[in-house]
Amino acid sequence: MSNPVNAYPIGTLGIAWGEVERAAWLAQQVVQRSYLAEVVTPLTVMLLHRDSGLADVAELVEYGVLDYQAQGFAKYPLYAVRSRNWQQEHPTVLVTGGVHGYETSGVQGALQFIAQYFSHYSAHVNLLVLPCISPWGYETVNRWNPAAIDPNRSFVAASASAEAAAAMDVVQSHTSNLLVHIDLHETTDTDNSEFGPAKAARDGVAFEYHDIPDGFYLVGDSENPAPDFQRALIAAVSQVTHIAEADADGCLIGAPLEQCGVINYAKKALGLCGGMTEARFVTTTEVYPDSPSASPAQCNQAQVVTICKAIEFALQHSISK
């Protein structure tokens, strides 16, 4: 249903934003936290200091730079963490976080996985981790980039999102024997209070309100649903935090429940990050950080558990096609 109470202060219903409205929106965005302090520095400490142990098995790769100085912000170097001893015969696991920069546990969960488990799993698979694809969004706590473009609808050819384009480029060079792709996300209350209304205003349509699920859930690929894989991940995460229940219509965020805690999207058709590869096992996590029953530590841990279980399940089932 539409929710006129959440009418957005920029734009006119029925008219998509032009340059004036986009500029007005951008003028409201402010830096609220530091990508350098919270993402880059921890990566540097972990990977460039020999006594960390990670330096022997992982390397930090700068795969691009986003220059938003003209918009009044900064230059943002983009980093991936890659297995140092890359072996073509090993299966490859891709982990992406921070496609939506405001979804904190997607970024912090990826960093926690690198710190705690990268060394262990790098003995069995090639690992490529992009912990923060949208650093401007991380700093400004935003879903979009400065051009009011959603990177997670932009994983397409000739992408209008510099964030998505850079990520696709580096992933394309590491796709041999790609087995798993885990894309780390959150669903937050601000999806209804800010980002949903902003999107509707940007596109000149009425805002369609939906209930925010209280709990963790997964989004599989409708073209490659892998239900046993999704089920195993839900079982593992249920030991860490609660799983979202379907609403009265049997849905989560408007999509029919496929199984407990799992819905499916057409990821490639929608230009989602989770659709940019041909990996056999693909899922998108959705953590609910606003739940009174989940702490930030639980949210991060849910992301980590998903990655670990995904790798273990995929290795156990990669022989059978």
Automatic annotation (TrEMBL):
Entry annotated with the keyword Zinc: yes
Domain of life, per lineage: Bacteria
Family matches, as PROSITE patterns: PEPTIDASE_M14
Domain Peptidase M14, chain residue ranges per copy: 39-321
Cofactor(s) required, per the database record: Zn(2+)
Keywords: Hydrolase, Metal-binding, Zinc
KW Ligase (keyword) present: no
SUPFAM superfamilies attached to this UniProt entry: Zn-dependent exopeptidases (SSF53187)
Family: Belongs to the peptidase M14 family.
Protein name: DUF2817 domain-containing protein
Organism from which the protein derives: Deefgea chitinilytica
